[in-house]
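job 3f2a | input accepted
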Amino acid sequence: MRRGPGSLHRSLKSIEFLATRDRRAVLETVLAPEPPAVSLRARIGLIYRFVRATNAVRGYHTLTEMLRISNAILARTGRSPVILEAGCGYGASTAKLSLATRLAGGSLIACDSFVGIPENDEKHELLDGRKTEFRAGAFKGRLTSVLRTVERWGAPEVCRFEKGWFADVLPRLEGPFDVVVLDVDLAESTRTCLREIWPRLRSGGVLFSLDGQLRATHEILGDPGFWREEVGAEPPPMEGLGQSKLLTLTKA
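job 3f2a | predicted structure (252 res):
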């Protein structure tokens, strides 16, 4: 049944207190014209569940970031989209992505070492000039713990978990992928993921990086030589390069 303007206004008011800082992304999710198969009620329910998961599990993303990624997933409803997540952390993002994936009728492959960041000697500078580094074992979410998080706050029935380092796990995965989410922190991990995943990203597919707080991520993505010599492709259209934490790459 079609909802009138009054009903829509009440629905928006009911979630306003949950997402004041992320209002634009909330409106984009609620008012998205396509696909009609994903109802207004389902979209509002998705936002509610995202907020509940955020309050329960530590994550390193914003509601806006998760909603924009979810909108790309929902836009593929009815096509049985395959979603790939590289870097699960403690499972907050995996739970949220699984909910959007279930609404879209797709499947989610979640890849992580589940023992934290590997040994590395990388030194990083954030976009605001601060220095940082990622110690071995950081962001360690054990597989059993991530599974519990997804079971409680997400949709485990659409998930498949792949344990191991990206260089070992990604080559054995089947494609093509429709939406890819990278949250991998290390520059070398970003390089590995792009080399392995981009050739198997479906035409018209989207790859998101949540590592845009690091200058190194922007330098890699903005380097035509990396794309041509290591990935074997021309640099794709990118949104947020040089400016944003959430980077969006679209495969033409």
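job 3f2a | The first strand starts at residue 82 and ends at 86.
job 3f2a | closed
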